[in-house]
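Data availability excerpt. The first of two example chains:
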Amino acid sequence: QVRLVESGGGLVQPGGSLTLSCIASGSIFSSDAMGWYRQAPGKQRELVADTTRGWANYADSVKGRFTIARDSAGSTVYLQMNTLKPEDTAVYYCYFRDRGNADYWGQGIQVTVSS
């Protein structure tokens, strides 16, 4: 079993910054994939960023503004979000994919960008 707990969401003004954290517990390997998805009201869930084996992938809409990172043990993944825009408003979900390609999801945290 893998559990994912997110933190760091909230309300920020346009142009502001926010950092999300996700702590994984259970059968975790640093080489396994972790990342972030988001879902805005009325829209499909979309990949924001993910990382595995030291490589990172970003959605075009967040490139240059968001940065994903993991700690040395591979149990925590961060998403640093800068220059936030109203269209970044969504519920953000942490995810983990194990070697059997099973997916695990956090509960989701709200990020609201508004003045």
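And the second chain:
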Amino acid sequence: QVQLVESGGGLVQAGGSLRLSCAATGRTFNSYAMGWFRQAPGKEREFVAAIRWIPGTSYYADSVKGRFTISRVNAKNTVYLQMNSLKPEDTAVYYCAARNRGGTYYYSRPSEYDYWGQGTQVTVSS
């Protein structure tokens, strides 16, 4: 019923920028919160950023704070991740996630999210 469609990944050199997009569709979907996670080869999935739909409060991992910005377009159920000053350490598959429930939650935990995209590869060359 609910699908998350990601786009915007690609190849970029260190110091460059990319913008990832994620659109949520589905007849029963409610955008309580959406987030971005990433997973590098041989590593666990790690939290990158999240946004609570209302009032738009955002959260960031320390590793990306000041470089990445998460935003949303309410009417389109779409979330973006603007990535600036990219580093080789940012290389990973980036996953969009959506929480379809209200209440408080641990925004950095993958288990708190209900739906996931298929991922988009981001590769940063040195």
